Backbone:
C-alpha cells in the first residue's frame, strides 16, 4: 500500500485518532519511529529553523520543504508522513507543482493554508489572509494535479481566518474547500474546547485536524481529550523543538562554563547507541547479505 492509502485506512477507522509527533530532520524522525508512532508530521517551523537557521516567516521554499519531506518519508514507507506545504508557494500552477513534487516524494498528506505567500507561523499575531477564492483555487489546484498524476495524496485544507474573520467565516472557508475536494479540515488557532467540539460536529463526516502547539492560542488537550471531542488527527509540531532547544542549550551552557559535558541520568548516549536509532544494525545486515565484508566483524 502507498503511504497515502495507509493514511486513508487510518482515517476510515472509527475508533482511531492519528497521533503525529512533529519532527523536522532525519534524527528526530528516527527517534519517533523507534518509539513506535504510526504517523509522522513534518513541521514547517522546524524545517525552516533546522535547514535555514531562520524563524518561520515564510522564507522556506518548495525545494527546502520537499527535499526534507522526501528524506523523511523514505525512512519508513509504511509510516505515513503528513507535511506542511504552507501556501503552496504561489498561484495555481505553482500549487500544482508543489502537489506533484510532494506526491513524487512519497508524502502521504499535506496541508495548504489561506495566508499570503509571505506567511508566518499560525500561532503568531497579525496574519494576512488571501481572498476566499484564492484559497479555494489552491485546493482545486492540488485536487486537479492529484487526479492528473494518477496517484494519491491526502489534501488538508487549513484556514488561519479564525482570529481575523471569526468562526463562521473561517468554517465557511473550510466547508467550501471540502466541496472542491479537500479530504481533511484544519481550523488553525482553535481558542476553546467548546469551539473545537463545534467545528468537529459541523464539518462531520469530514475528518478534522487539531494543531496542538504548546504555549499557543489553543488550550492544551491530551490525545484522549482530542479524540473525545471528535478530532481525527492531532499533530504536535513542538514535540521535538522544545526538548532539543532545552537540552542543547543546557549542554552548551555547561560546556561553556565548566569545559565539560556530562550525560544526564543513567541513559546511554554513546555513538553506538545513537547510531542504532538511525539503522546501524539494519545497514550492517544489508551489507553482509549483499556479500560485503566491511562489517562482518562488527563495529
Residues:
Amino acid at each position: 500500500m502507498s503511504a497515502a492509502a495507509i493514511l486513508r485506512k487510518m482515517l476510515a477507522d472509527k475508533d482511531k485518532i492519528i497521533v503525529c509527533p512533529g519532527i523536522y530532520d532525519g534524527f528526530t524522525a528516527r527517534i519517533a519511529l523507534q518509539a513506535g508512532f504510526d504517523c509522522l508530521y513534518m513541521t514547517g517551523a522546524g524545517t525552516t529553523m533546522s535547514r535555514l537557521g531562520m524563524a518561520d516567516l515564510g522564507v522556506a521554499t518548495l525545494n527546502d520543504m520537499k527535499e526534507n519531506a522526501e528524506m523523511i518519508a523514505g525512512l519508513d514507507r509504511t509510516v505515513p508522513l503528513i507535511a506542511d506545504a504552507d501556501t503552496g508557494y504561489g498561484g495555481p500552477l505553482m500549487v500544482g507543482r508543489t502537489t506533484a513534487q510532494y506526491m513524487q516524494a512519497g508524502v502521504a498528506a499535506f496541508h495548504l493554508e489561506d495566508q499570503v505567500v509571505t506567511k508566518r507561523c499560525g500561532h503568531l499575531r497579525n496574519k494576512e489572509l488571501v481572498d476566499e477564492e484564492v484559497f479555494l483555487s489552491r485546493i482545486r489546484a492540488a485536487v486537479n494535479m492529484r487526479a492528473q498524476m494518477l496517484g494519491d495524496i491526502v489534501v488538508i485544507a487549513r484556514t488561519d481566518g479564525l482570529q481575523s474573520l471569526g468562526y463562521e467565516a473561517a468554517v465557511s472557508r473550510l466547508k467550501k474547500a471540502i466541496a472542491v475536494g479537500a479530504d481533511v479540515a484544519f481550523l488553525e488557532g482553535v481558542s476553546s474546547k467548546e469551539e473545537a467540539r463545534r467545528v468537529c460536529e459541523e464539518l462531520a463526516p469530514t475528518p478534522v485536524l487539531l494543531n496542538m502547539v504548546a504555549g499557543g492560542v489553543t488550550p492544551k488537550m491530551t490525545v484522549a481529550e482530542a479524540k473525545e471531542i471528535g478530532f481525527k488527527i492531532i499533530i504536535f509540531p513542538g514535540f521535538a523543538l522544545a526538548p532539543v532547544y532545552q537540552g542543547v542549550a543546557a549542554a552548551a551552557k555547561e560546556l561553556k562554563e565548566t569545559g565539560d559535558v556530562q550525560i544526564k541520568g543513567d541513559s546511554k548516549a554513546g555513538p553506538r547507541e545513537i547510531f542504532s536509532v538511525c539503522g546501524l544494525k539494519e545497514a550492517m545486515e544489508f551489507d553482509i547479505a549483499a556479500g560485503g565484508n566491511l562489517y562482518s566483524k562488527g563495529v
Observations:
- The chain has 13 helices and eight strands.
- Residues 245-289 form one domain.
- The chain has two domains: 3-241, 245-289.
- Residues 116 and 129 are 5 Å apart (CA to CA).
